[in-house]
Write a structure and sequence with these properties.
The protein has 248 residues and is an alpha+beta fold. 26% of the residues lie in helices and 29% in strands.
Length: 248
């Protein structure tokens, strides 16, 4: 074989390898994708990334985040969904949507205050390929468990990505690991990671639980526990807690 075809084959192999690496998710290096459509068993719930509803020179405020979250809810066309709470953090707003008829959490979304900072989910993907940045006011699915473990509302858990990492389960309101067991797993993780940390509010989603926790009595952040494997995933992309608003 001549050198030229061999070199061409080598470049193709490197390119395919880079593509696979660019699409790989891990619990420690979570990336996100733009311009997809998030589909689930109920149909399309909205764009993978919504365009900013508010063009702001200053960081997005809580009132603006409420408006964006409610506009996104309306765009789903699903009257059974509602907002349970919005939590403001240093870098973003966390929005929890739930099902009215079951009370079970549906999915979790983020709104970045000033755009995703470098190194955080939402800032580029593919290790330098086709880089882009999620700007302020854009609502996006929260990375991590919401995308990887959600067996009803995320295509990744039921599609190729879910089965690739062993998280492809049928959507069910019951899971092998109960909420109390999930809190025990979460507390064990906190004991090994933080001082004076305790689990607080737990919300059941399809496939996992998301649990707020405190340090010395003050809310610090959240983590999730897989309802089938017991794996714990700390939400490391929020920054310091600021405030929260609960909806009726």
């Amino acid at each position: 074989m001549s050198k030229t075809p061999a070199l061409a084959l080598l470049l193709v192999a490197i390119g395919l390898g880079s593509l696979v690496l660019g699409l790989t998710y891990t619990a420690y290096n979570v990336r996100s994708y733009s311009n997809w459509v998030w589909q689930n068993q109920q149909g399309i719930t909205g764009p993978w990334y919504s365009q900013p509803q508010i063009q702001a020179n200053a960081p997005i405020t809580l009132d603006q985040a409420k408006t964006i979250a409610q506009q996104y809810l309306a765009s789903t066309g699903n009257s059974n969904l509602a907002i349970k709470e919005i939590m403001e953090f240093q870098y973003n707003f966390y929005i929890e949507y739930y099902e009215k008829d079951t009370g079970i959490g549906a999915f979790e979304m983020l709104i970045w205050k000033e755009g995703a900072p470098y190194g955080y989910p939402g800032y580029g993907y593919g290790y330098g390929m086709m880089g882009w940045r999620v700007g302020a006011g854009v609502i996006m699915p929260e990375p991590g468990p919401n995308m990887m473990w959600n067996t009803k509302y995320s295509p990744m858990a039921n599609g190729w990505m879910g089965y690739r990492y062993g998280y492809g389960y049928q959507a069910s309101s019951t899971m092998p690991i109960s909420m109390s067991q999930a809190q025990q797993y979460a507390q064990a993780y906190l004991n090994a990671t933080f001082q004076n940390a305790e689990t607080k509010t737990a919300t059941q989603f399809y496939g996992y639980y998301t649990i707020d926790f405190t340090v010395n009595g003050q809310i610090v952040g959240m983590l999730s526990v897989n309802g089938y494997t017991g794996q714990v995933w700390y939400h490391s992309w929020h920054g310091a807690f600021v405030q929260e608003v609960e909806f009726d």
